[in-house]
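cache lookup: miss for this entity combination. No prior model stored, computing from scratch. Input as submitted by user K.M.:
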Amino acid sequence: NAGVTQTPKFQVLKTGQSMTLQCAQDMNHEYMSWYRQDPGMGLRLIHYSVGAGITDQGEVPNGYNVSRSTTEDFPLRLLSAAPSQTSVYFCASSLGRGLNTEAFFGQGTRLTVV
Amino acid sequence: AQSVAQPEDQVNVAEGNPLTVKCTYSVSGNPYLFWYVQYPNRGLQFLLKYITGDNLVKGSYGFEAEFNKSQTSFHLKKPSALVSDSALYFCAVRDIMDSSYKLIFGSGTRLLVRP
């Protein structure tokens, strides 16, 4: 059972570069989301999607884009990397759109912007 | 606004002793509450959740949590700690009034269980 798969696991970018963090889930979950984890701040929501073709902004969306063309995939795109985007990024998925379902997380992508 | 507070950055306990990791929340409507654990260089793993019903919820690895509506708290507990329980623990809440269904996380509490 693969669950939620994120690639790459580690990435170093130069300021101004763009890149896409990949996220795929094989559980047929409707709800997917991206978080960033920074020390002492917990996880903060970047973008989320309640189903294919539907995305919306979370708490900290600036500098990031997402798309959801299929149920399985939810890539996160950094448009022009900045040092403030150095963080650990987690993708998560949940069954349906219900409030009572737990989220499943990927292993994370550790991104450093220099 | 929704929020979750974990007042302790770190909790230290001896192996075999009971442990408590504290969590309080603030939401507009009724809360759905979750606990997750994160081991080094890993993603978050679900431990347990409170949706409705019994205020004492049992979860994975012998953990349990008590929902207290009057104190808006959802503390994580375990009767006898193991060294392998050492990890980072996150409390999270969903607000039934929030149509985005997003999870709001606390800042995390590091649990250190010494042999």
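stored under new cache key. The first strand of chain B starts at residue 3 and ends at 5.
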